[in-house]
Amino acid sequence: MSLKVSIYRQKEKVKRSLSRALHGHCVVLLYHRIIDMKYDPQGLCVSADNFSEQLSFLKKRHIFISIEEFCDCLEKKKFPKNALLVTFDDGYADNYFNALPVLESTNVKGMFYVATENIGTKKLFWWDELDLIFKQVKKYGIDLSTLRNMHGTSDNRYLYEFYVKNCKSASSLLQREELLKELRSQVTINDTEKGNYSFLTKEELKALHRSKWTDIGAHTVNHLSLGHLNVTDQFIEISESVNTLSQLLGYKVEHFSFPYGERVNFNNDTIRICKQLNLKSAAANYSGYVSSNSDVFSFPRFVVRNDRPEVLQNKLKEIL
Question: Which residues pair with 27 in a beta bridge?
Fold first, then answer.
């Protein structure tokens, strides 16, 4: 690193530090699942015990705020010192059974973004189906050479990565389903393996909404990458998820999060549609903290893993 670059970076760090001192900041925590899972290739699961300990530990050092307070702070360009906002993506049943009791016992409010297609069904998210398929492949030594040859991959690990990449970037539900059909033709998932992947039922979602420690937001219908869709399909995915939740819960859903959430997964059209639908905020998923100048329609979040509280705290310090 050149001396010039080093000096520039040091100046930027000082500027960020001064901004936080004057205007505060907020780290938006992103959880997915609160469940103790030994098999978790995506790293989406945090055990209930760890979740409880994380919140109790962080509460001694930070101020937890709600999504409404968060939006108000951004509008006023002033956050409390060391503010945190807790969010959840997707809509797994364990959010109700395992996360909610912890939020209520620690008096911390959580923002839950729900993808609507799976509500009340036994469908699996594509990444869970993919993980269970390859678990079966490894367990029973299933031969996937036909698919490896088809996609020019050398082994099952690269084949898995091929499907993750292409399912994530699919430009339509049909395209994603065609990819999954290739695997389904070779492997059948044991039904007993599906038990830990339950989605919220309508009744559970309503009960989650009734708690004073929760807010509910939308997360599209089919969990497609909005940045890979045309404008019409983006509008359908966003508006229909908002409308479905609003009708089910009996109030206007006003907050949204982008599936996957990296910068390639949304664009200017996505943000314009969110504003057109009179939403108040839209959460992204690129690393960083929210400053007084952050955009309420594409703010960063920090993905929380199944870490001990002290490890999580150190990770939070690293992004400042």
Answer: 84
